[in-house]
Amino acid sequence: MMSFLVSNARWLATGFLLTFASSFGQTWFISLFAGEIRAAHDLSNGAWGGLYTIATLGSAALLFSRGALVDTMRLSRLALVISLLFALACIGMALSANVVMLAVAVFLLRFCGQGMFSHMAVTSMGRWFHATRGRAVAIASLGHPLGEAVLPLIFVTLIGVLGWRFTWGIAAAVILVGVIPLLMALLSQDREPAGEVVSAEASAGLGGKHWQRRDLVRHWLFFAILPLFLTPPFIGTVIFFQQVNIAETKGWTLAQMAPGYVIWATMSVGFALIAGWAADRFGPERLLPILLVPMGLSLFILAPAEVFPMWFVVLGVMAMTQGAAQSFLGAFLPRVYGTRHLGAVRSLQTVIMVISTAIGPGITGVLIDAGISFPRQGIGLGLWCLALSAAMVPVMLRLRRELA
């Protein structure tokens, strides 16, 4: 493992930096500013949620049309363009004088952060690595939990000391002064595959071909695994988005629940690495029936929980799925669909993920307004996870026959 890290340090660091920097466009980061943004623009919870959903769906549409740039444009040039746009989005948040400017800034944050930065990172790992693809994706994806673990405390402190607008300016400066120079240094050399690492041309997918988006949406597998693509981001988003409702329902405080971020990040890291190793060792398709089992169990734990330490158990168990899912998808898509058009294929999966994170808060919020608390909703979501896991058994068996 150490020799793998050393010999591929430049490329793994590129993926890690992209996923870490994507934090500035993730829901959990933007939500740190939610109270100040709503007060500054006189927005109700519903208005802010609606604006966020529309901006996120718009970013998904743009990602669908531009995600294939990863296939046709040098990563060094594409990363520079998207990074500059990302910094501009942060500046737009800082200077937003009205709701229209705010909406445009959120749209760009979501497109660059949750969308393109994550998309570039995982697609590059899938293209650059073959036999060690699962481990490469897992290591690159560690930027996500690290951001979740360290950035909230730093930026909440900055908001309290400097104000929310100036803090967004600092985020822009981090991208301009820190992220861009590091990316340009890391990408100053082209990737030279060697040993276990093979070129995109040599890594075909199902049926010995390189699939395009129009091919995969006509194939049975896409519709069979679509619910699996949707579920982890949907539940992973709403579990944090509805923390206030959980706290009110259980009689806990957000201060008591806050250490859960660290537990979530730690477990995500561990199971991302485990899933990456398992995908390389046994094939990513074998993870299909077990991927959602921890997430389902965690929701069953949440429903009857009475004391706040159980919240840490819930997040720790759920993070097993959340961490493993990133490594799984990073290895599964090139394994099944090949690498020549991997950017276009993965952009479709990323769009599905973004749409899932956009509609999750809205659906669960409507149910809460109807009198169904989120812990009660969790029972239904848990049953869904376990039922979907069972449904993945025949999918896995058929897929293994076709891959063989």
From TrEMBL:
UniProt key word Membrane: yes
Keywords assigned by UniProt, alphabetized: Membrane, Transmembrane, Transmembrane helix
An example Gene Ontology molecular-function term: transmembrane transporter activity
Superkingdom of the source species: Bacteria
Listed transmembrane segments: 49-69, 136-162, 168-187, 220-241, 261-279, 286-305, 311-338, 350-372, 378-397
Stretches assigned to the Major facilitator superfamily (MFS) profile domain: 1-402
Protein name as annotated: MFS transporter
InterPro entries: MFS, MFS_dom, MFS_trans_sf, Proton-linked_MCT
